[in-house]
């Protein structure tokens, strides 16, 4: 899943080497934390959050086969 998130986000940003994805696995869910350069936040979030919503939709669909809820948090 980390590779999928990186593959989606890396082409969108100015500083692809600063894209970092970490995860926290809990009993009933997996939370992925996406960190990008401060200047790239607007590109990752998009107007009215449309890009972030699209990324989350793809990630959630890809994680549907797992029996845990998938969450994606975006931070600087």
From TrEMBL:
GO biological process annotation, one example:
cell wall organization
Q: Which family does it belong to?
A: Belongs to the KhpA RNA-binding protein family.
Q: What species is given as this protein's source?
A: Peribacillus saganii
Citing just one GO molecular function, the answer is:
RNA binding
On subunit structure and binding partners, the annotation says: Forms a complex with KhpB.
Q: Give the protein name, as stated in the record.
A: RNA-binding protein KhpA
- A Pfam family hit: KH_KhpA-B
GO cellular component assignments: cytoplasm
Note the CDD domains from the entry.
KH-II_YlqC-like
Keywords annotated in UniProt = Cell shape, Cell wall biogenesis/degradation, Chaperone, Cytoplasm, RNA-binding
Physiological role: A probable RNA chaperone. Forms a complex with KhpB which binds to cellular RNA and controls its expression. Plays a role in peptidoglycan (PG) homeostasis and cell length regulation.
Q: Where are the transmembrane segments?
A: none
Subcellular localization: Cytoplasm
């Amino acid at each position: 899943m980390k590779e999928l998130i990186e593959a989606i986000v890396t082409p969108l940003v100015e500083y692809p080497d600063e894209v970092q994805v970490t995860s926290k696995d809990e009993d009933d869910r997996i939370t992925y934390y996406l960190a990008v350069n401060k200047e790239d936040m607007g590109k990752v979030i998009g107007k009215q959050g449309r890009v972030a919503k699209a990324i989350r939709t793809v990630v959630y669909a890809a994680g549907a086969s797992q029996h845990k809820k998938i969450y994606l948090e975006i931070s600087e």
